[in-house]
Amino acid sequence: MTRLPSADREPVTTNGTIAVANLHAQIAGLAARGRHAGPGPAAAPLAVATRAHLIDLLLLRGDVLSRIADYERAGELAGELVRDAPDDSRAWLARARTRATFHRFAEAMADLETAGQNGLDRATVDAERAPILQAVGCYWHALVLCEDAAKRRPGFTTLGALAVLQSERGEVTQAEPLFDQARRCYQDISPFPLASLDYRRGLMWLGQGDLPAARSWFAAAQRRVPAYAPALGRLAEVDAALGNRQDAISRLRLLASSSDDPQYAAILARVLGAAGHRREAIQWHDRAAARHAELVQRHPKAFTHHAADFRPGTAEPPGRLAPAS
Amino acid sequence: MSDHFSGPRALAEPAADITDVYAFPSPERPGHLVLVMNVLPLAAATSLFSDALSYRFRVRPVTAVTAGPAFEAGADEYAFTFTFTAPVQGNGSGTVAQYGTCTAPGGQQLSFLVGDESAQAPGLRVFAGPRLDPFFIDFARHIATQAQEKLMFRPAEGVNALEGQNVLSIVVEVDTATVLGPGRGPLLGAVAETVTRGEPSARMERMGRPEIKNFTLQPQKFDTVNRDLEIRDLYNAEDTFSLNPAYVGAYRARLNANLAFFDRLDGKIDWPLDEAGNHPLTELWLADFLVVDMSKPFSDDGYLEIETALLAGRQHTTCGGRSLNHDMVDTYYTLMVGGLGGARISDGVDQVTRPATRTFPYLVSPNPNPPELDLMAQIAAASAPPQETAA
What we know:
Chain A is mainly alpha-helical. Chain A has 16 helices and no strands. Chain B has one domain (8-357, 367-382).
């Protein structure tokens, strides 16, 4: 059984609406600062830090709002950063992160290797390698790295990473207390890391077929950051599976309109189709398929394996993750 | 820049990033102390305060001591703590509003609407909301000075790196007689902090004097003790009035090294180190709070005047503290490079385009459309050798 978030132990974080607004402002400010970063001898150290930070923020906004355009911009900036500062480990680390985002895992690993050769500490390299190993199914190797990190530096980041890894391995009994421990360690005020952790916990329960438990964690993530797109999308999927199609459709319409990730339009098409709104379902499906085709061209490793979700001409394409019935 | 981006944690949590602190006798109301805290560098005109933080001013009576020389803070403390709500629906369509509460010493509370300039209670006026960032500096030429280890300012060509940018401001004006009570000396030490509201509570940032962290604690290359240490997060987490003895040595070593660097910039030594390698300003800098004399009238020329008087062995003549329009970069460089009585060193930026006013809440309204901050280009232009500039 999962233990749901209890109000008396909830970490206090900045209201999600405020945090998203401030994230937008922060990106706008740093983007302007980094736009004309020059190669001057004094500018270089500050420019690398600023530009690497901007890349991280773009990746964060991409995660929170499901904005592929942010991932793409981060990737462009990271490429420029490596070009401008090839001896700086922060540049390689930034590019590794953007490449991993687009599932270019081998290249991301190579960038991390170069970052290490340029002075990035081993703990950071390992912390970045673990989720990549996890993503390519090398769970055992990832587990060694994550357990070592959690043992050496127990805290929100390391315990959370281990919890997510165990959850992906289906080890719910081991993952649950780790999720709890990670939450108890959280001392920052940003709502994003906690929303992400709760979302991942929801995914774990979704994978176990426990829709009410999954829903509670997706809802916790969404309460913390109301605009958190992945949680909203999963909430809609779960609601649809639980028979609450109208709420699901309302959420998904907003998401499909605001996000440039076609998965929400695809899910909306499926839910609409199941609800009998075949005409609108076809429109959303075709829109998703067209966008997906664009993305496959640009990022084949990230999107090709989802091609079945966007088969043209079907009003009810399967989602990435079929909800339990 | 003053205290903008003053460490990795401040970069990660901009809502907690204190950019500046000011303390001065009210130019409008004699006997009233004005405290200003600015946070969230490069804020939008619509930015809001974090509801997960307490924004706190701490004020203590202080006395000057000749050992060091420095200032010692008394045990009595007066805290003004600001907290904010989550955003709520505003009056206009699609607008949001935010409410705040100021808790004064003794528990008196004053609630207000963010942006409202009229909130007051007996002995207390408060304001919180977006304002134009009053800090000014030719940051590019400061960076060039650090990189090239010589003064790179061009007095006639200074460029304010923060021109037109906004911050979130908190202003409290206090009747010291009624709110702080009688029986104090005239000197007060003031700092600002951002502290998490959860349990356990953690100090995110603290600030007393400007540029202590960014000018004199951030540069690592001169520090022979901890050359690879980014020390500012550690320093930010400290209780200003009670530094952890375990870390003071590290702060002292960093300050000694960087203050000596500044002293060398004019090619002569005005601040000889003592036999232990300590710089004469180090203990003053470690007592990192603004010192204001409430028995003196408002002055725009007070910043560091009380401290320099102490160093010179004379009585101070101004209110000290720090006012909004004071050119602290010039004052700072002049003192650190040229010593007491040194010729003025100017970064070429003497004020913002829209200076602060003499009426509450003193800071001017925010810029609805802040310009792009072309800081990197400014730095590159200021630092690049001639051939690179031509390219």
